Amino acid sequence: MSRFDGRVAFITGGAMGFGRAFGETLGREGAAVVLVDRNGAAAKQAAAELSAAGLHAAAVECDVVDKDQVDHAVAETVDLFGGIDILINNAGLHLTKYNRPFSHLPLSDIRALFEVNMMGVINCSLASLEPMRARGGGSIVNISSMASYSSASPYGVSKLAVRGLTIAFATEFAGAGIRCNAIAPGLIATESAMADLPEGLVNSIVNDRQLVNRLGEVADIASMAVYLCSDDASFITGETFKVSGGIPLWI
Ligand SMILES: NC(=O)c1ccc[n+]([C@@H]2O[C@H](COP(=O)([O-])OP(=O)(O)OC[C@H]3O[C@@H](n4cnc5c(N)ncnc54)[C@H](O)[C@@H]3O)[C@@H](O)[C@H]2O)c1
Q1: What are the structural domains, with CATH classification, of the chain?
Q2: Which of 1, 21, 230, 240 has the lowest CB atom count within 10 Å?
Q3: Average pLDDT, the chain
Q4: Minimal CA–CA distance to 130: which of 167, 77, 62?
Q5: How confident is the model at residue 248 (pLDDT cuts 50, 70, 90)?
Q6: Helices and strands, counts by H and E, the chain
Q7: According to the model, what pLDDT value does residue 250 have?
Q8: Which of 145, 194, 202 to probe ligand 1 with, by most ligand atoms within 8 A of CB?
């Protein structure tokens, strides 16, 4: 018997990076996982690989910005696996171009960023409320960022909003037995982050800023996500947890 047997996880941005790792880790612990991504082909490929490894996995093409697509993805998940117990709001835009000052970024880019990083979380959380309530409760994990503590850029502010939404939904959904927490990752070696960041910057973050001098791995974030989704975290809600190798903040 595994910890997540009989549970269903709806994971946005599930095709690659963190999302795929969440799917694999929760799947290995018995959950049925739905990889929800606007890149339907990549999500399908990832779900096929997980299924080939013996996990219960499916892919649903969905842009989290579009409420109708989200409602449809939630309905498809309930049809496929009978409900939703876990929502991981992971889909997000994070290229360094979004880390410039507001006045240096076209308004269209700022709008697109907030649509995905903020409205995506709102759309998926609201759409999952009733299916989770019907199961007697559940757990939402939002993916914020360490940038929400240190960067007043559009990206940092969008991820600060994710921390705010975490408190809002923890409060609003508590009566339905739903907990809502967030993770603020530091630099983690996903394909997209490594392709985006210059090697010199990666080395200086790892060696000069972190207290643990190794590159963060998706498994470091997946283990925190799994803990927060599990019954071991049943007394924890409304919190954001930093997982960054100890990047120091001012006190
Ligand atoms: N990698 C890092 O170092 C790091 C650090 C802090 C926070 N984060 C956050 O973690 C999350 C995942 O990061 P990653 O490195 O795995 O990203 P990634 O770019 O590797 O993967 C993101 C996935 O989300 C999907 N996606 C993007 N917009 C979408 C939308 N509108 N609807 C549905 N799917 C969409 C993409 O198709 C892709 O499959 C993001 O929210 C990011 O901001 C990452």
Answers
A1: 8-239 (3.40.50.720)
A2: 1
A3: 97
A4: 77
A5: confident
A6: 10, 7
A7: 67
A8: 145
